[in-house]
Structures are given as structure tokens and as C-alpha cells.
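Could you please review the protein record set out just below?
***
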Amino acid sequence: MNISILVFGSDKFVGTLPDQIRDTNAFSVEVITNLNQVVSQTQISPPDIVIVQASMDGSIEFCRWLKEQAQLSWIYCILLEDRATLLAERSKYGWQWELEMTSTALQQGADAYIWQLAEKLTPYTSAELAAHHGLLLAQVMVGLRKAQKYRDLVRTNDILSAIALADSLTEISNRRALDWELPRQIQKARTNETPLSLIILDVDFFKKVNDTYGHLVGDRLLQLLCTRIKHNLRFQDTPFRYGGEEFVIILTNTSCNEAMGVARRLNRIVSEQPFAINNELAINVTVSLGTTCLQNDDDSKGLSLLHRADQYLLQAKSSGRNRVIGCDNYSHSHLRVVSS
């Protein structure tokens, strides 16, 4: 586990930290001395632990800001108190005053508040330095454990999300994934002013396969079909199982003419070779496809885009199946029919 530590403090302050923290073999340490820069860097590349020098301008503000960021609140913030006046008052007012100061620092956003050793005439003994450094290192270990738990949680959530968004039979993305991805791709296409197209594909007479050979054979056919489709898509094309034997393919940065070409290729590669279910059974199937492209008046969720492609699919099925029907040149009225 590569632990990253961001130090908001001066070079002199860094020199007072334990050698174990400054050991680049154990940690990845970055030092920043400016409030705006430390905020920016934290947003760009969030560290696991931040160590803040209390005498730096904006130190408390940074701790408070960090805990206000929901997406960054897991970062462990250690505030080291080095302000000379407070160090002097600490020895003057005693432990009750120290507890009040510690409570205030924790309320302001620090996860840990550690008092630096005050300057004195005689050097601190090695035992005193070791005790102080031990306290700081103990807090670093607390931050390390918190970071590890956070990473484990993220990894678990990623796995659960992948499971939730994948179709268990075909292992391609499911309809829930489509509902999330299509609006994102529409927004991206409109922001970048690039074309976006969509294909709806349906297996012709799939019910006959189930009725003749059984649902297990039908399931195997869908698995083989998805494998063949995936191997014949471009890298920017994303397939989804829409339901049953119906599939949707999002074609990013793809015009209507290009989408028609993709649909024709899929229509051909499905019908040109039987699907070998086992050593004794091979089944010939065809597919019908409807294709359309994003238009200015389409809604942001993609409902109208899906509906239009579905209407073209219905036309393909009602006009004989095993064909592609879609629109060219961003026109609702200009239909193009391609038969296999």
C-alpha cells in the first residue's frame, strides 16, 4: 500500500518531523507552503494523510475546509501546534487549558492535535524526542488504517457496482447500466459537439428457439451471440442487454451513416455462420436492427432516442426481419432500409 502524506508547512517544520515520515521508501511525501496550492493539490491528488503546521497562514482554515468536502473527508488531518505563544501558555496554564485548546482544534476540523516541543535552553534528550515522535507516528498509523479501510471500501463498492451493472447471463452491461450511461454520453456529445448514435438489436424468432430446444439452449445462444457481437464492435461501441433477446449499443462519436455501417456489419456477422451450442447442435439465427442518432430536440435522458430506435426496429421486424432500418443525416423523415 503506497501511503501518501501531504505536509502543509515550512521546510524548517519538515526538518522537525521524525525520520520515518521523511523516509521516501515508506511514504510518498509532498511539502506545500501556500494555502491555495495545498487546497488545489488536495483536490487534484488527494493524499491519505495531511500534516499541518499550525503557525502557517490558513492552517485552521485548511483543516476546516477539508472536513467540509464530503468526497475528501476521509483524509486524516494531523495538526501540529508550533505557535510559540501557545506553547508558552501551555506550560503556564496547565493541562485544563491544554484540553480546551485540543478540543477547539478537533472541533475545527483536525483529526489529531499534537503539541510540538517548545524551545528551551538545553536540548531535549533522545528519550523525550522519541516520546514526542512516537506520538506523531502513532497518529500516522491511525491515518494509515483509516486510509486502508477507505480503500477496501472503495474496492468493495466497485465490485458491487460492477455486479449490479452487469447482466449475469451474457456478462455485458445491463439495462440499469444503460440508464446511467446513456444520459452521460448524451451530455458529453452535446458538450463536445460530437455525434452520437444508437442501435437496438433483437433476435428474430427467439421464442421458437426456446420452444424447440429449451431455455438452457436459448441462454447459451444469447451468450454466444453477445460474444460474437462484442468481437465485432469498435472500441468506442458499448453493448447493453436491454431485456430478453433485445440489446442496445451506444455508438459514441458516430454519425448516422457510420451507425448504419455498424448495424449492417452486425446483421451480417450474426446470420453468416451458425451458433454451435454443442458438438451436436448448431442454430442459425438472424437479427433485426433499428438505428438512429442524437438530435437537438432529444431529451437529456435518452428516452426519445431509444423510442425512435425502437420504432425503426419495429419497422424492421414488421417488414420481414433480418434487416436494418434507420435514419440518415439527422432526419426523422429520411429512412433507409437495408435487407440482408
In short: The domain at 3-163 is CATH 3.40.50.2300 (Rossmann fold). The chain has two domains: 3-163, 175-339. The CA atoms of residues 141 and 147 lie 10 Å apart. The longest strand covers residues 196-203.
